[in-house]
Structures are given as C-alpha cells and as structure tokens.
Specification:
The complex is a heterodimer of chains A (176) and B (376).
Chain A lengths: L17 H6 L9 H8 L3 E5 L4 E3 L7 E7 L2 E6 L5 E7 L4 E2 L13 E4 L3 E7 H10 L1 H42 L1
Antiparallel strand pairs in A: 1-8, 2-7, 3-6, 3-8, 4-5, 4-7
Helix pairs in contact in A: 3-4
Chain B lengths: L8 H36 L3 H21 L6 H23 L4 H33 L8 H53 L4 H41 L6 H11 L5 H18 L3 H28 L7 H39 L1 H4 L14
Classes of the chains: A alpha+beta (176), B mainly alpha (376).
Chain lengths: 176, 376
C-alpha cells in the first residue's frame, strides 16, 4: 500500500494500552470495553530486572501474574537444592492462578530471565472488586474459571491417554 | 617505610579528615533534620484536628458512598449525593426540632458551675469525715482542696478556650467536608500509588497486610464512633425524661468519654451525677439517672448489644494495653491524648498482629530454605 494513503489520524494508542493487552488474554477476551477499564484499575503493573525472583516456592501466594513482556522461568528445587526447570513462559502467558482462590504456599518458584513487565491480579483486589461492583467481577471470575477448567480438562485428557498407553504396555507384556 | 600496624603520616591525616567529615556531616544532618521537623511541626499545627475528623468522616461515609455508586453513578456523583443527603438531614432536623440553645446553656452553666463544684466539695468533705472516723490514717489527706483546685483550673481553661474554639469550629466546618471529599474520592488511588512503591519481593505481602489492616481499621473506627453516638443519644433520651438541666451537654460528654474504654464511661457519668445530686437531691430521679448511665447505657446497650455487633470482629487490645495507652496518651497530649491514645495503640496492635501473621514472607532468608526448613 502506498504510505500516502495510511490513515495517520486513526487512534493507534489503544492497541498499545493495557486494556487492549488484557483483552487479548484468553480469560479476559469476553470482557467489554467498560469492564476492561474496570479491570485496568484492579491490576498492578510490576517491573522486574534480569534474574529477579518473582516468588519462591513456599511463599504465601496472593495472586496471579500475566507476562506483558519479557520471559519468566518457572522452576522447583529438588532435595539437594538443585533447580529443576518446569517451564519457560513468554509474553501473554500467565502463572500463579492457584493462589488467586486461597492463600496457599506457592508450589514452584518464578524468576524473570529478561527485563520483564508483569501484570498482577491479586486476591484482595478481586475480593474488593466483587464487593464494589459484582457484575464485571463475576465476568472476570468466570473467565478465570474457564481457563482453569480448560487446563483441568486438558490434564484429564492427557491422563486418560497415559492410562491407555499403560494398559497397552501391560497387554504387550502379558502377551510376550 | 613504617612497620606493620603503624600508619604513615598521610594515612593518619586521611583518617582524621574522614572522622572530622563524618562528625561534621552527622551534626549537619541532625541540625537540618531538626529544623525540618520543626518547620513541619509549625506547618501542621492546625491541620491535625481537621485531618483526624475528616479521616473519621471518611470511614463513616465510605459505606454510604459505595451504596450509591453503581454503573450509572460515578464515585464523585455518589459522594455529592451522600453529602447532599447528610446536609439536608441535618438541616431538616434543625428546622423541625430547632437548634438546642447552646449559647444560653453555656451561659447558665458558667453561672452554675461554681455552685456544682461547691456542693460536690461539700459532699466529698462529708464523705471524707466518715472515712476518717473509720480509718484515722488518712486524716492528713485533704482531698477537697485537690478537687477544688483541679475543677477551678479546668473551668478557667474552658472559659479561655471558648472564643478560641469558636473560630476553630468555623475553619473545621470549611476544611472537614473538603478534606473528606478528597479522601472519599481519591483514597484508593493514593493508597495504590503508595503500595506500588514497595519492592517486588515484598509487594504481595504489603498488599495483603494493607487489605487486612484497612478492613480492621475501618471496622474499628466505624464501630467506636457509632457506639459513642448511640450511647450519647440513649443518655440524652434517658436524661430528657427527668428534670435535669444540660441534658444535651451531658450526653455529649458521655458519648465522647465513651471512646475511652473502661475508664471513660466512669468519668463521663461524674458531671451528670454531680448535677443530679445538687439540683435534684437523692431521690427517685437521681436513681433513675444513675440507672440510665450504668445499667441502660453501659450494661444493656453497650455490653449486650453494641460491643458484640460492632467491635467483636476486630482484634481487641488487652486491658493492660488500654490502661497504658490512656496513661501515656494523657501524659503526652492531655484529655485529647487520652481519647485518641487507645485507637492509635489499637491501630499499632492491628499492624503488629498482621505482620506477625505474615512473618513467613517477611523472613529475608526465606529463599535459602526449602519449605521443610532445610538449608539449601
């Protein structure tokens, strides 16, 4: 396209805004603009340096994080204190959503491997939002619920596959 | 070259220089800090009371603002609605009942006060005489003079402060609605901004502690103020049934002193009982007034109804802490210190409990241990 015809007057700020980023997340994709603006006031934007610990295994967690930019390493420690990588997450991924429902100890540690911007959604803020304006909060909660249940579904499917494989293996063993 | 352990001339000179500079900069920092605190003190002298009252108003009005706030009504609009309703209610009440005759009542009290004191002292002296007959040890102790002197100085203070406080009330009427408006509208944004300053490592913990502390604080302040208000109204109604004078002033005294636990109610009932004793004598009405103060207001309303509903959700102070807070507050700021000492110590108490609750995350060495406590 000829750059002359580019619409330079179109408002392109929105695509860089926090609300636009949130609307691209799977759990918040059904939210309307007003509800996104509401969500924008609940979340916290946090900046992390390279190699900065986000949380450690065993900390009392209080919420989930979404990666806006950068990279996060999720790891656990074995009994010798050696790190076992669990996952490397990039922009658009989220982690720590279990702590959103109850203050449980974190089951893994997270560390920023690049300069990272995280968007935190925390239990206390969500509870206050439920008290103040139940309708948008319910929609946010439903979105979170959908994501968590999708994960559960996927997990149970994989479990089913593993079970079948195990049964096949045992059959082969008995046949031999 | 010098031997080991001894310093060369240059090194000694450098050491002296460094030490001198350290001392000098210490003195400079100290003096500038004290100047700055002095300036801050001067700048904030008259702001303490308005900010305190606006904070209290904020905690009281916040639920009402939430009630009106919704999809269609913004927070600012909701605050204006609450203000409008509040002021129109006060205005209507004043129109219907008519303002109590404060001016006349104060003038009459000014005239009557010495009489009450005299009677109280006479009564005390009589009491002391009978006591001295039974316990000769205390014969040297002249309690009447003490009480008389204290009452006189207190009364002189009131006379001196009245015109002064009239001006102060005028400024309060202007400042408190303004301050509490901004507290109501922006407190969330301000607190979020402050919390976001905490380092990443402690952010979650600070957020949790803030949520708990603010919840406890709101309930504590709301509960205490409502309790004092209800007690004041109950005592006003109870006293209005008798012929006692100054019922509104006595009710205000009872309500305000009720903010101080344990000791406050006892002090709050003394003026009422003295006036009843002097004006009405020991009779049916005196016993009714005593009954209103002790049985109805304190035992039934306060202990059986208000404290279980309003205060019990909040972690309470140990009685020893309450008494220490009252004594220390009184030493620092007099009567005002006695009243606000207990809430301030309760706030500190809430802070300490919450931080102890979260101390697992507070431990900076936490990351070097597994959750089984072994060193990594």
């Amino acid at each position: 396209m000829n750059p002359f015809w580019n619409n330079i007057f179109r408002d392109r700020g929105y695509e860089k805004s926090l609300a636009y980023f949130l609307s691209s997340m799977p759990m918040f994709k059904d939210l309307e603009k007003r509800e996104l603006a509401f969500l924008e006031h609940i979340v916290h934007v946090r900046n992390y340096e390279v190699n900065e610990t986000i949380f450690s295994e065993g900390d009392i967690g209080s919420g989930m994080y979404t990666i806006r930019s950068g990279q996060v390493q999720i790891y656990t420690l074995d009994e010798h204190g050696l790190e076992i990588d669990q996952a490397i997450l990039g922009a658009g991924d989220f982690f720590g959503e279990i702590a959103l429902t109850a203050s449980r100890p974190r089951c893994a540690s997270a560390r920023a491997t690049e300069t990272t911007v995280l968007i935190g959604l925390f239990r206390t803020d969500l509870l206050e939002a439920v008290r103040r304006s139940p309708a948008p909060s319910a929609k946010i909660m439903l979105g979170l619920n959908r994501v968590v249940s999708d994960r559960l579904l996927q997990c149970s499917c994989q479990l089913e596959e593993v079970k079948e494989q195990l049964a096949d293996n045992q059959k082969q063993h008995t046949n031999e | 070259m010098n031997s080991q352990g001894e310093m060369s001339r240059a090194q000694v000179a450098v050491l002296y220089l460094v030490l001198t500079m350290a001392i000098a900069s210490g003195i400079a920092i100290y003096s500038s800090a004290s100047i700055i605190t002095e300036l801050l003190k001067i700048a904030t002298t008259d702001l303490f009371l308005p900010i305190l009252i606006s904070l209290i108003a904020y905690f009281l009005l916040d639920p009402a603002v939430y009630f009106f706030q919704g999809e269609k009504i913004s927070r600012t609009m909701s605050i204006f609605i609450v203000y409008f309703l509040l002021f129109s209610t006060i205005f209507l009440l004043l129109m219907i009942i008519g303002p109590p005759n404060w001016e006349g009542m104060l003038q009459a009290l000014k005239a009557d006060f010495p009489r009450y004191i005299r009677h109280a002292i006479e009564y005390l002296t009589a009491l002391l005489k009978t006591a001295q007959e039974h316990f000769p040890i205390i014969s040297n102790y002249n309690i009447a003079d003490h009480v008389g002197a204290a009452a006189q100085s207190f009364f002189a203070l009131i006379l001196k402060e009245t015109p002064h406080s009239a001006m102060r009330i005028g400024s309060l009427l202007l400042l408190v609605p303004l301050f509490s408006f901004f507290f109501l509208r922006d407190s969330r944004r301000i607190m979020r901004g402050l919390i976001s300053l905490t380092p990443n490592r402690y952010f979650e913990m600070v957020l949790d502690i803030y949520a708990h502390v603010s919840w406890q604080l709101a309930h504590f302040i709301r509960g205490r103020i409502l309790e004092a208000l209800i007690i004041g109204v109950v005592i006003w109604m109870g006293l209005s049934l008798t012929d006692i004078r100054y019922a509104p002033i006595l009710a205000i005294i009872a309500g305000v002193t009720n903010l101080v636990p344990y000791i406050g109610p006892l002090i709050g009932m003394i003026p009422g009982l003295v006036i009843a004793l002097v004006d009405l004598g020991v009779g049916g009405e005196f016993w009714w007034i005593l009954c209103v103060y002790v049985l109805i207001a304190q035992v039934i309303i306060d202990n059986f109804i208000l404290i279980p509903i309003l205060i019990s959700k909040v972690s309470n102070l140990h009685p020893l802490g309450v008494i220490l807070a009252i004594v220390m507050g009184g030493k620092l700021y007099g009567v005002v210190g006695m009243i606000i000492g207990v809430p301030i110590v309760s706030i500190l108490n809430i802070f300490i409990i919450e931080i102890r609750h979260n101390r697992r995350n507070f431990n900076p060495y936490n990351r070097y241990f597994t959750n089984r406590g072994k060193l990594l």
